[in-house]
Amino acid sequence: TLEKPVYRIRPMDMVRVEITIQKDGRREVMPGEYRVSADGHIPLMYLNQVQVAGLTLPEAAEKIKRAYIDQGYFKKPEVILQISSYAERRVYIDGFVAVAGPVNMPMEEELTLVRAITAARGLQPRASRTDLILIRNVNGEEKKYIINLKEIQEGNAPDILLQEGDKIYVQDSKI
Are 85 and 107 within 8 A, CB to CB? Predict the structure, then answer.
């Protein structure tokens, strides 16, 4: 099935981290903003490097909190993470479209198949509308899906949410 993905932190994302601790009876906030390195780490005070890529925001916040507690730096830190800017995300579209190539996904919005085709400036006249190929990486394995764009455009099937790295191939209509 083509399910909506859960956002996981990626290399090159910009992450805002806010750590709140109790110190001498008052709350102290330690804010910071970090670019996730190519190998998935962020540098944090006292902890050096913390691996966050591949984790959801709540998972990463819990990992940071546990690290501060386990290493004895803070007893009960509150950790809040937010993405302040996303790494570039793309899908690829090829075949019988006006402009083949990468299509950037909006940072905080979902990209659907119809919007990706629109970004590729539409289909060529000979393009098939009934058997587009979507290739998606599912757990490290490439899966192929045949998509009927005509059904989507006529409102008889839901538009498909694309994921980073998806490849869409628009075939010749063979007419």
Answer: yes
* Out of 21-25, 130-134, 165-169, least confident range: 21-25
- The secondary structure element, H or E, covering residue 102 is strand 101-104
DSSP SS3 for 60: helix
Mention every residue, 6+ apart, whose C-beta is less than 8 A from residue 141: none
Q: Give the ranges where the chain is alpha helix by DSSP (H).
A: 57-70, 113-119, 149-153
Q: Are 168 and 120 in contact (CB under 8 A)?
A: no
How far CA 88 is from CA of 13, 99, 110, 113, 153, in Å, comes to 8, 20, 13, 18, 28
In whole angstroms, what is the distance from residue 39 CA to residue 145 CA?
A: 31
Average pLDDT rounded to a whole number, residues 40-62: 94
Which residues are paired to 145 by β-bridges?
A: 134
Q: What is the mean pLDDT of residues 93-107?
A: 88
Each residue's pLDDT tens digit, 6-35: 788 989 999 999 999 988 889 999 999 999
114: left (phi over 0), alpha (psi -120 to 50) or beta: alpha
At position 113, the amino acid (one-letter code) is L
Element (H, E) at 97: none
